Amino acid sequence: xxxxxxxxxxxxxxxxxxxxxxxxxxxxxxxxxxxxxxxxxxxxxxxxxxxxxxxxxxxxxxxxxxxxxxxxxxxxxxxxxxxxxxxxxxxxxxxxxxxxxxxxxxxxxxxxxxxxxxxxxxxxxxxxxxxxxxxxxxxxxxxxxxxxxxxxxxxxxxxxxxxxxxxxxxxxxxxxxxxxxxxxxxxxxxxxxxxxxxxxxxxxxxxxxxxxxxxxxxxxxxxxxxxxxxxxxxxxxxxxxxxxxxxxxxxxxxxxxxxxxxxxxxxxxxxxxxxxxxxxxxxxxxxxxxxxxxxxxxxxxxxxxxxxxxxxxxxxxxxxxxxxxxxxxxxxxxxxxxxxxxxxxxxxxxxxxxxxxxxxxxxxxxxxxxxxxxxxxxxxxxxxxxxxxxxxxxxxxxxxxxxxxxxxxxxxxxxxxxxxxxxxxxxxxxxxxxxxxxxxxxxxxxxxxxxxxx
Length: 454
Description:
Helix 16 packs antiparallel against helix 17 and helix 17 crosses helix 19. 48% of the residues lie in helices and 13% in strands. The chain is of the alpha/beta class. The protein folds into 2 domains: 271 residues, 3-Layer(aba) Sandwich (Rossmann fold); 176 residues, N-(1-d-carboxylethyl)-l-norvaline Dehydrogenase, domain 2. It holds the Pfam family Mannitol_dh_C. GO terms for molecular function: mannitol-1-phosphate 5-dehydrogenase activity.
């Protein structure tokens, strides 16, 4: 009989104090930031909040936050007990988030809330037309940042927490996005400040003076956990773990920015600190994430279910390589080693034991493609080239959306409205980027590709 997983049964000492807070308690956070922190510094504990559902906090709380991280390669599985997540909270517990952010010993807040969770307009500003943003603006303005804890957005919750930190006269804090968004530090600052400036000018000024927003480039393929993993972990470790995570051997974390209240010694675990992260962000976003999105749509259109299936289709692979060729034209900074990075991606994609489902990657494509394929296409067009690889990726998304009855996307209402119009492909291109949609040459080209793919 297996043993329930908790600190007592695992013979672990008391947990580390909470010095890190996280929004977005998912598999990637636990395979990346928590894992790096455990490797780097045992004196830093994470309190992590779910994105929406309380399912993960409900699973982790009886386990004292413990879980097994299974690194899966062609040579087999390597299970590792992770103990740096010391508190798992549901998203609805905003009171605990506010309490922690006011605590002077809490030094860093990290985020994995997906691109859509920042509620940004096309120009990178806070999307005040979004219903959740409007709700939070009204809630925060009506109570002068006191009272109501019924907040829907990450930015709203952060503003509430920062107001409490200011009132407690605590030092500054770092808020660091770990999502796949270019310039994620400035964009996070824009979302938080955009909301704060609407509700409290003094708070916004304090945030500008004392809060930092480091930028990051993160990388580790982490598929959704399947039920079979629970049985595998029980057989391998003897513990009944209801929240294991599976990941690949490769991991990378690059950071640019300051931490006014301190941070773990992440460099001890291999984290790179750089003075200019822009090209590293783009390398990850355009090569890894960009090809993931291309495979998610083109692969499913060709009947594939996983990344490994898609990359082993010569047709799909040729389009991935074409997209990479175009991206590489604009990735020229010293130290990027784009050819080596491309080779490593092929090896990672071909890993037969990492079951990375294309349907999972395909979620929220309207936001993802706006930040992945669209910038590559625009850069190629500006250089006088047609950008056929990026155009194909955009066309694959449009063809996929047109052929999918129910699209899983935070911008689903815009997508469904576009699908009803006479020229639905053009309207869907406009959902991604109005400038591209108004370019008759490129819009005609993409519509032709959509027809060929459908």
